[in-house]
Write a structure and sequence with these properties.
The protein is of the alpha/beta class. The protein has helices at residues 21-32, 85-95, 130-144, 164-169, 188-200, 221-232, 242-245, 251-257, 266-271, 281-290, and strands spanning 13-17, 36-41, 50-52, 71-74, 101-107, 118-119, 149-154, 156-158, 176-177, 185-187, 210-212, 240-241, 262-263. The protein is built from ten helices and 13 strands. The chain has a seven-stranded parallel beta sheet with strand order 3-2-1-4-5-7-11, with helices on both faces. A two-stranded parallel ribbon has the order 6-13. Strand 1 (13-17), helix 1 and strand 2 (36-41) form a beta-alpha-beta unit. 35% of the residues are buried.
């Protein structure tokens, strides 16, 4: 019988490319577990475990960064032409390494608009937004690369320091009501822990190349906002109907409201057995509230 953590050992070395909110949380979680983790940034900083990688400026990581690397997580978005910057600059290098796994953070936006219906990994992608079409193109590039890649499709990401509480605090909240509109979401801790769970159990679980990571309860934005105001003990402003608000929204904000889908996590949670830390927005936001 395989040891539960047989697919990860302290000898493993992780590189995280594009260490934003999710990548940074993943790095911290891994380091707490005792792993060596190096993170990329676009310019030099004070972090001794950080290295510079900036494909736009053609600044590549130094050779020694790759010594002993076994696992890579790429969080870098597509370039303006819809190609993957990591593969464009580093594919040849990555092919020379003894990599056990590469993770790529994508978006559930690739499913497009389902009018609120559930989508799962077996549904064909049908991206509606230009940025989601670019993401799907990058997914294809990774799959065709021949590298040991696993793709994670993520819905709206929130967590400490990046939640509705910050929007309320900074007076950037828009309380918009759109009938039957739902959003899927995931707490950043569940992204990190789901991926680590899959890596720890890699020898015993069937491998799936594409996995959704979302919570159990997609719901309307207004429910989430109302819950935050309730926790703060403050009255929520009167909602504005989407039709009345849409002309004041930025193109990117407006685009989020043009798609309506529920993202299924059954593959991750039922088939593969991952137990969510925050099954729904209430549990996740309570965690954020403690960190406000």
């Amino acid at each position: 019988m395989n040891n539960i953590a047989s697919s990860l050992s302290k000898k493993n070395k992780f590189l995280i490319l594009g260490c934003g909110y999710s990548g940074n949380f993943f790095a911290k979680t891994l380091r707490r577990l005792g792993f060596t983790v190096l993170t990329s940034s676009r310019s030099i900083n004070q972090d001794p475990d950080s290295f510079v990688f900036n494909s736009e400026a053609n600044i590549m990581p130094k050779k020694e960064i790759f010594d002993g690397v076994t696992h890579i997580l790429s969080c870098i978005p597509p370039d303006k032409n819809g190609n993957d910057p990591v593969l464009k600059s580093l594919k040849t290098k990555l092919k020379t390494l003894s990599l056990e796994w590469i993770g790529y953070l994508s978006t559930t936006g690739v499913y497009g608009n389902t009018q609120g219906d559930w989508v799962s990994e077996i549904d064909p992608p049908n991206p509606f937004q230009k940025r989601s079409q670019k993401r799907l193109n990058c997914e294809k590039e990774w799959i065709e690369s021949g590298l040991p890649v696993q793709i994670f499709r993520l819905p709206g990401i929130y967590g400490p320091g990046r939640s509705t509480f910050e929007a309320i605090k900074n007076n950037k909240i828009r309380v918009i009501l759109k009938k039957d509109q739902v959003f899927s979401r995931i707490h950043v801790a569940d992204i990190a822990n789901a991926i680590i769970y899959l890596l720890q159990n890699k020898d015993t679980l069937r491998f799936y190349q594409i996995i959704n990571i979302g919570d159990d309860e997609p719901c309307s934005q207004i429910e989430v906002i109302q819950y935050c105001y309730d926790l703060l003990g403050v009255k929520m402003p009167e909602p504005i109907f989407f039709e009345d608000a849409k002309n004041d929204l930025s193109p990117i904000a407006k685009s989020f409201w043009m798609e309506n889908r529920r993202v299924s996590n059954k593959l991750l949670c039922k088939t593969l057995g991952y137990k969510l830390i925050y099954k729904n927005y209430k549990l996740g936001l309570k965690n954020c509230f403690l960190n406000v």
